[in-house]
Amino acid sequence: MSEQTGPGGFAQRIGAQVEDADDGGARIAFEVREEHLNPAGTLHGGVLATLVDTAMGQAVRTTTGEGEVPATSQLTVTYLRPGSPGPLVVTGRVRTRGKHLTVCEADVEQDGEAVAHAVATFALLHR
């Protein structure tokens, strides 16, 4: 992908932008704003969960064929440090692609530091 595009759905509504998605990988840019913060003044964990899920889903979509729809069946997010207002980048990648299940990983970085790491399993629905 040469241009930034929205990922669609909820992630797009909160401002996520797909910078690249190709060959089992995806990169999402996100600007953390005041409305994304929790009462402690740091990036809400639910926003991070949405971003890693979206990045991994975009990565899986680069490997699917006609009629295959990825659906998150398991998601584990490890929060490494608090996120703060400003830009961050989420990188998702397919680790193992099976006929019915795909395993992915994602990393979130802000200011050159790791903010979160995630692992997810996606079921491939056939429609």
Automatic annotation (TrEMBL):
<protein>
    <submittedName>
        <fullName>Thioesterase superfamily protein</fullName>
    </submittedName>
</protein>
<dbReference type="GO" id="GO:0047617">
    <property type="term" value="F:fatty acyl-CoA hydrolase activity"/>
</dbReference>
<comment type="similarity">
    <text>Belongs to the thioesterase PaaI family.</text>
</comment>
<feature type="domain" description="Thioesterase">
    <location>
        <begin position="41"/>
        <end position="114"/>
    </location>
</feature>
<keyword id="KW-0378">Hydrolase</keyword>
<dbReference type="InterPro" id="IPR003736">
    <property type="entry name" value="PAAI_dom"/>
</dbReference>
<dbReference type="InterPro" id="IPR039298">
    <property type="entry name" value="ACOT13"/>
</dbReference>
<dbReference type="InterPro" id="IPR029069">
    <property type="entry name" value="HotDog_dom_sf"/>
</dbReference>
<dbReference type="InterPro" id="IPR006683">
    <property type="entry name" value="Thioestr_dom"/>
</dbReference>
<dbReference type="Pfam" id="PF03061">
    <property type="entry name" value="4HBT"/>
</dbReference>
